[in-house]
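Thread amino acids onto this structure.
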């Protein structure tokens, strides 16, 4: 029989082992329960829920956890992903995220009987006002304030003759369009259209007065309102390869479904044909004879060229161009019928050919005298001055036509910034270069500015008000330019290295109304 001390030692070791294995078993159970609890919580994260999500950031930036809405979820090969839209951020930042980027403990469930938010009139809600409607409604307040703060005579002042009717009769963007004009513009046209999402945070929303619901526009390249489809809110193309660039799309575009399941869509940079593999692209290149966009080259200076493309004569190219543009434009509606449109494609030339930089389209017959229906500079060429060059070229065409023009509304955030900047610089360039006559201060009217620039009257007025240049002084409207404003303008103009040279434009406007069918 074993001594007492030995029996005690064996009993103690056996007890310790039991305690040790019991602890291990409990830890394993807790870990399993935690996994089950996390899985149960993730099962509760459904479409419409909101919660903080870790935003994709650069390595040296601080972490951000903005509130996001769950738009969709998917599980492939055992991996669960959620498609999120960051509240108060542009839709181009929407992305698929893994569960480890969700802060599920702060999950907010959607309210009962509440669907995904829809905007009845997103053209008004998502875009800053690009016409002076609201500003002119508050003109009395502005004038009273300006009268008390009279500008100093030492400032450079120019007398301004405003039009007698202060409030524009016709609103832009088709909102003031009469049913008769809509019927006239739609006569004989049947367009198969896919209405795409307009729920965008493109521009900071400005409070708008309540207005009765308006009928969506049926002309141009977009509609002002349509039903929101959850499918169109989710990016369907992961990456495209266009020439030497690989680009991440910003928005949905209705490419064929078979292209949405691959990681890269390859696009020929000359004919814009899309294929699903590099091998297919290389095989296509051996057959593709184009080295420039189809159509007529109407402008060339240095390495920059513009090609005019008829949407009826070059239907396939025009449709491919629209599909490509929709990847980076959210507020536009894509039409498969390109017959009523002209496309002006800007290219950059090298030894390999003419590479697409951007484009704008316009209707052959526009009842509202729009000179741009859709405008885009591709992401690799942005912030290089090409956007203003496209805008300047559109107004140069309007000068050749002998009329004023304006872009279709609403404008995206980037479009609004580009147009505001172009209008400001163009108008200030005229005002700064005015010379006194007979020792008096120079005078100019709004109509004269419109004739010199081909910018529509409403856009001229809204730009002057945006710049705070109009003041009411001793019973008349004047434009007051401070030396600081002039210096700022001169610095901005010094950065514009590329300008349109009207001498290099070889183009004759066509009267499409007399040509019957386009």
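Threaded sequence (518 positions):
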């Amino acid at each position: 029989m074993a001594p007492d001390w030995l029996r005690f030692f064996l009993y103690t070791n056996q007890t310790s082992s039991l305690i040790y294995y019991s602890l291990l078993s409990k830890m394993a159970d807790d870990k399993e329960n935690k996994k089950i609890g996390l899985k149960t919580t993730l099962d509760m994260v459904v479409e419409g829920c909101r919660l903080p999500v870790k935003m994709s950031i650069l390595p040296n930036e601080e972490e951000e956890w903005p509130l996001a809405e769950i738009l969709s979820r998917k599980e492939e090969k055992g991996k669960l992903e959620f498609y999120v839209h960051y509240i108060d951020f542009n839709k181009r930042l929407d992305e698929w995220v893994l569960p480890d980027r969700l802060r599920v403990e702060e999950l907010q469930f959607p309210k009962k009987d509440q669907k995904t938010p829809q905007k009845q009139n997103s053209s008004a809600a998502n875009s800053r006002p690009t016409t002076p409607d609201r500003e002119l409604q508050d003109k009395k307040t502005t004038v009273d304030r300006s009268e008390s703060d009279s500008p100093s005579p030492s400032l450079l002042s120019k007398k301004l003759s405003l039009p007698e009717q202060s409030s524009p009769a016709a609103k832009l963007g088709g909102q003031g369009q009469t049913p008769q004009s809509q019927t006239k513009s739609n006569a004989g046209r049947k367009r198969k259209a896919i209405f795409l999402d307009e729920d965008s945070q493109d521009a900071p929303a400005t409070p708008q007065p309540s207005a009765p619901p308006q009928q969506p526009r049926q002309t141009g390249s977009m509609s002002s309102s349509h039903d929101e489809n959850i499918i169109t809110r989710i990016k369907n193309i992961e990456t495209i390869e266009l020439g030497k660039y690989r680009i991440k799309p910003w928005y949905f575009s209705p490419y064929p479904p078979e292209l949405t399941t691959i990681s890269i869509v390859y696009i020929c940079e000359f004919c814009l044909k899309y294929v699903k593999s590099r091998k297919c692209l290389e095989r296509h290149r051996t057959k593709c004879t184009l080295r420039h966009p189809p159509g007529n080259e109407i402008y060339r200076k240095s390495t920059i060229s513009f090609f005019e493309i008829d949407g009826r004569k070059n239907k396939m190219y025009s449709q491919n161009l629209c599909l490509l543009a929709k990847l980076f434009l959210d507020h536009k509606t894509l039409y498969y019928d390109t017959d009523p449109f002209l496309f002006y494609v800007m290219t950059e030339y090298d030894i390999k050919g003419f590479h697409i930089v951007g484009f704008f389209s316009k209707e052959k017959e526009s009842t509202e005298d729009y000179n741009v229906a859709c405008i885009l500079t591709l992401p690799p060429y942005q912030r290089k001055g090409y956007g203003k060059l496209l805008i300047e070229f559109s107004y140069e065409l309007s000068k050749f036509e002998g009329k004023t023009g304006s872009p279709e509304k609403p404008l995206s955030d980037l479009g609004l910034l580009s147009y505001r900047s172009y209008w400001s610089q163009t108008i200030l360039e005229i005002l700064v270069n005015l010379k006194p006559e007979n020792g008096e201060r120079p005078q100019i009217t709004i109509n004269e500015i419109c004739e010199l620039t081909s910018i529509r009257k409403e856009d001229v007025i809204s730009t002057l008000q945006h710049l705070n240049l109009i003041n009411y002084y001793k019973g008349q409207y004047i434009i007051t330019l401070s030396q600081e404003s002039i210096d700022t303008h001169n610095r901005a103009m010094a950065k514009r290295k590329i300008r349109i040279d009207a001498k290099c434009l070889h183009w004759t406007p066509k009267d499409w109304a007399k040509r019957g069918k386009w």
